[in-house]
């Protein structure tokens, strides 16, 4: 789902107070917002990139030595992606925060020389706002990354980046997730003095992937009656596996478990058989190389293995989706990897006779403290 959201701000339709309206075909909002993603990526690259680069320069001038990331839901997976970027590309030690240490236990920390990045589609969750305020009071450089420039979180942080995704009305977050990924990449690239050139091919590649919906629809047929699914990846692909599992669970209600390939071998591999499907997200690069021994073990166990990634790995699996990554750096591939998996969650849900726009028991407004 979207991360935690506030009540609607009349001045900003990106955070509606009510769930997706009834009427019309099931999933029409999720389908439309998924299709918007190439346009959103272009908007960030043309309209948002200069401000992101300026923000990165101002933060770099403060020379933070450590980074803490804080988020919920879908945005938590985007924050995990940023953790990989910051550790690999910048060599900065990073951690994912536990907001309850501040909001529930009242812990006070010394965050001098620390950068705290709060990622939230809505920017309204009380615990995100409170923990960001506490971090700023504790001496941290604070940055909010949201889809709502007028949100309480944007006001609480010293710096703000608007991901420019526009209103998102379906409960499952799609375009806000990829917008967060690209904005976070541009931030980290800016912190190391880059200009984001490598990302300019993303909108066209995203259009190519989303045009292949029929392939995904055929793939979805094998999951219509699935009782459980396992998703796995390594490196930059691991946040993609987690986000895909979340999308499948909240739309189709299939229990979907996401594991790092390394963690999968430390016990959970025992539950893999030839009945429960396994989806492997295989990056082109070091993450994919690290995952190959895991793929071999899965094949040895007779797993119903589906691969999203290189053609050579798809050919060795039960089925799959070949990503057109070309020369795209591994650190940018997650923006593409999630697209066929968003489509898969949508198509599986429709095949099971459910409405992905409005999953049961969920609401767009979810407040945590």
UniProtKB/TrEMBL annotation:
SUPFAM superfamilies registered for this protein in UniProt: SIS domain
Domain of life: Bacteria
Ranges in a coiled coil: none
Keyword Repeat listed: yes
Domain (SIS) ranges: 55-197, 219-359
Alphabetical list of Gene3D superfamilies matching this protein: Glucose-6-phosphate isomerase like protein, domain 1 (3.40.50.10490)
Keyword field: Repeat
PROSITE patterns to which the protein is assigned, alphabetical: SIS (PS51464)
Biased composition range(s): Low complexity: 1-15
Keyword Repeat: yes
Chain spans, region Disordered: 1-29
Single GO BP term: carbohydrate derivative metabolic process
GO MF, one annotated term: carbohydrate derivative binding
Record-linked PANTHER family: AMINOTRANSFERASE-RELATED, GLUCOSAMINE--FRUCTOSE-6-PHOSPHATE AMINOTRANSFERASE, ISOMERIZING
Name of the protein: Glucosamine-6-phosphate deaminase
